[in-house]
Specification:
This protein is of the alpha/beta class and 311 residues long. The chain is 22% helix and 29% strand. The protein is built from six helices and 19 strands. Strands 1, 2, 5, 6, 7, 8 and 19 form a seven-stranded mixed beta sheet that branches. A five-stranded parallel beta sheet has the order 10-17-11-12-13, covered by helices on one side. β14 (205-212) and β15 (217-224) form a beta hairpin. α1 packs parallel to α2, α1 (11-21) runs parallel beside α6 (290-309) and α4 runs parallel beside α5. The longest helix has 20 residues, at 290-309. The radius of gyration is 22 Å and the shape is elongated. Bound molecules: flavin-adenine dinucleotide (FAD).
């Protein structure tokens, strides 16, 4: 069995594996796609101490760093279930089981869950084609790339309105499109939004297409749900803010999740299950960023080590 088994090979999982291996304990990492969301990222300008990099470069560096330690890497494997130590079974007493989709079972004294999250897509024509070419999901990451330009934010919940307020300070103009008849964000955010002069709010607006010139986004088409009319806005960027979905479906019923499906953790990154820790975008950590996921992964590994020496 492992001392620490990490599930997920994004920034959080990679950091957790390195921190665990550096303690000289038996460490494994199982990941469906090594690198996680970083694979889908073009410019990265907020990974502190590296002025500029891109996703594939950072994924390679992550992989090299993990491989320089004695870590069992199990790529292209999907975890499908987690089971508490079976107290009745003497042979595996005290071990946590991770069941893989392939049918195999891995056992470990502690587990770190770092399965990340994914942005909810609008699923309209143009969205996929112009990803990283004007279609963006993260204002903290990509806001500065649109300095002085006209962008849209799709989504009128807290994240959409927060994004619009954030972007209004960086870009030239923001058009916020909300499908519903009214914004759903907290009143205090809505009040703040309405004080901003370079923001236009459109409600009852259903985004139907992201348009482009073949290389970059040049606008967005929406249907006015009151009149039924289809309208086009010329702009250079579209931020889609309709939700971030944690990859925690396979954990439902085994440990405490928030109402959004995020794994609840404490300051040591411990979950509600003894010996099970979690880190990164799949958890209740409020901000989802590479550098934060790495710090959380390190914290979870140290939490797991602390747990192990007390067993
Ligand atoms: P992830 O990166 O999501 O990794 C999750 C890992 O778990 C993957 O290896 C995945 O394959 C694996 N996994 C999932 N489910 C299972 C399962 N059941 N079994 C086994 N393995 C599983 N952040 C920044 O700081 N700067 C940026 O510029 C930036 N730009 C971004 C651009 C885009 C397009 C996107 C999508 C995100 C961007 N982010 C950026 C956010 C950043 O990528 C995430 O915050 C970060 O990757 C989270 O790391 P993580 O390890 O928690 O999860």
């Amino acid at each position: 069995p492992y001392d620490v088994l990490v599930v997920g090979g994004g920034p959080a999982g990679a950091a957790a594996a390195i921190y665990a291996a550096r303690k000289g304990i038996r460490t494994g990492i199982v990941a469906e796609r090594f690198g996680g969301q970083v694979n889908d990222t073009l410019a990265i300008e907020n990974f502190i101490s590296v002025k500029e990099t891109d996703g594939p470069k950072l994924v390679m560096a992550l992989e090299e760093h993990v491989k320089s330690y004695d870590v069992d890497i199990m790529p292209l494997q999907r975890a499908a279930g987690l089971a508490e130590p079976e107290k009745a079974d003497n042979k595996h007493a005290g071990l946590i089981e991770v069941k893989l989709e392939s049918g195999a079972t891995l056992r470990s004294k502690s587990v770190i869950l770092a399965t990340g999250a994914r942005w909810r897509n609008l699923n309209v024509p143009g969205e996929e084609a112009y990803k990283n070419k004007g279609v963006a999901y993260c204002p903290h990451c990509d806001g500065p790339l649109f300095k002085g330009k006209h962008v849209a934010v799709v989504g009128g919940g807290n994240s959409g309105v927060e994004a619009a307020i954030d972007l209004a300070g960086v870009v030239g103009h923001v058009t916020l499109l909300q499908f519903d008849t009214e914004l759903k964000a907290d009143a205090v955010l809505q009040r703040k939004l309405r004080t901003l002069e370079n923001v236009t709010i459109l409600t009852s607006a259903q985004t139907t297409e992201v348009t482009g010139d073949g290389t970059r986004v040049n606008g967005l088409t929406y249907t006015d749900r009151v009149t039924g009319e289809s309208k086009h806005i010329a702009l250079e960027g579209v931020f889609i803010q309709i939700g971030l979905v944690p990859n925690s479906d396979w954990l439902k019923g085994t440990l405490n999740l928030s109402k959004y499906g995020e794994i609840e953790i404490n300051s040591h990154n411990a979950t509600s299950l003894p010996g099970v820790f979690a880190a990164g975008d799949v958890t209740t950590v409020p901000y989802k960023q590479i550098i934060i996921a790495m710090g959380e992964g390190a914290n979870a590994a140290l939490g797991a080590f602390d747990y192990l020496i007390r067993q």
